[in-house]
């Protein structure tokens, strides 16, 4: 079977290293996974005022999440947490009350930073948010990517063999996790 994975890039930067990481993960994913980006850029700032009537952009965003089997968060760390744009997107998806898009939707988190701890603190924060949002989370493996210039090319080729192998294995484990979760929690069950 083929599984659809919707991925979010937590950065809006035109030179984002996390976008490069996402491109690499698309390349390294096993053939059973189809990776589809779910863009967060066009969402306005969330307010509870919208709950009565979500704008089309937010409805499309929630539909994109509904259409996939699992989620992958590829995010930078901003001030030891996740970027506001990504948190905003999560807040949109979690509402209106009773229509939380993350419920039973399995997810994985990964991120890259030039710093040595490679987004570890942001990922901990993100895990707390996703846990509250009732998304079954892949616990192991964890992936904290320290990005050195040239590690991933513009078209998503990983130039370091051990990193490429590690990321390939990450996507293999994500696939196995999605299969396990969907066995107990079928999509429409
Ligand atoms: C950063 N950066 C950063 N890095 C880190 O490892 N921990 C952190 O807490 C922060 N905080 C932070 C805040 C803000 C506002 C910015 C702009 C940057 C550096 C960050 O890792 C670096 O800019 C990456 O290149 C961001 O990822 P993208 O946007 O290139 O994918």
| Gap from first CA to last CA | 18 Å
Q: What form results from the Cα inertia axes?
A: globular
Number of strands: 5
Helices and strands, in order, run as EHEHEHEHEH
User: Roughly what fraction of the amino acids lie in strands?
Assistant: 5-15%
Tally of individual helices: 5
Spans with pLDDT under 50 lasting ≥5 residues?
A: none
**How are the strands of the biggest sheet laid out side by side?**
2-1-3-4-5
What ligands can be seen in this structure?
A: ligand FNR
The averaged pLDDT comes out at: 97
CATH homologous superfamily assignment? Flavodoxin domain
Query: Biggest sheet, open or closed, and with what strands and sense?
Result: 5 strands, parallel
CATH architecture descriptor text: 3-Layer(aba) Sandwich
Give the count of structural domains. 1
State the name of the first-level CATH class.
Alpha Beta
* Radius of gyration from CA coordinates: 16 Å
InterPro entries: Flavoprotein-like_sf, FMN_Rdtase-like_dom, NAD(P)H-dep_reductase
Protein name: ACP phosphodiesterase
List keywords for this structure.
ACP phosphodiesterase, about 190 residues, Flavoprotein-like_sf, 5 helices, FMN_Rdtase-like_dom, five-stranded parallel sheet, Rossmann fold, about 15% strand, NAD(P)H-dep_reductase, binds ligand FNR, alpha/beta
Structure write-up:
The chain is of the alpha/beta class. The protein has one domain: 3-Layer(aba) Sandwich (Rossmann fold), CATH 3.40.50.360. It is 38% helix and 14% strand. The chain is built from five helices and five strands, in the order E-H-E-H-E-H-E-H-E-H. The chain has helices spanning 17-28, 56-66, 84-94, 120-132, 161-184; strands at 3-9, 33-37, 70-74, 107-113, 144-146. The chain has a five-stranded parallel beta sheet, with helices on both faces. The longest helix is centred in the C-terminal third of the chain and has 24 residues, at 161-184. It is globular and about 50 Å long. The mean pLDDT is 97. The site of ligand FNR has 13 residues, from helix 1.
């Amino acid at each position: 079977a083929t599984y659809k994975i919707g991925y979010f890039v937590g950065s809006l930067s035109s030179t984002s290293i996390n976008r490069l990481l996402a491109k690499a993960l698309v390349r390294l994913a096993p053939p059973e996974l189809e990776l589809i980006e779910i863009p967060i850029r066009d969402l306005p700032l969330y307010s509870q005022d919208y709950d009565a009537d979500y704008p089309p952009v937010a409805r499309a965003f929630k539909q994109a999440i509904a259409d996939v089997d699992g989620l992958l968060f590829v995010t930078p760390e901003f001030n030891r947490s996740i970027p506001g744009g990504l948190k905003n997107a999560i807040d949109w998806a979690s509402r209106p009350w009773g229509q939380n898009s993350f419920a039973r939707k399995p997810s994985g988190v990964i991120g890259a930073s030039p710093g040595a701890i490679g987004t570890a603190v942001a990922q901990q924060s993100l895990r707390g948010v996703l846990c509250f949002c009732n998304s079954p989370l892949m616990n192991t493996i964890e992936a904290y990517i320290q990005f050195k210039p040239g590690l991933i090319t513009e078209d998503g080729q990983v130039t370091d063999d051990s990193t490429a192998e590690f990321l390939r294995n990450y996507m293999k484990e994500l696939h196995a996790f999605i299969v396990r979760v969907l066995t107990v929690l079928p999509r429409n069950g």
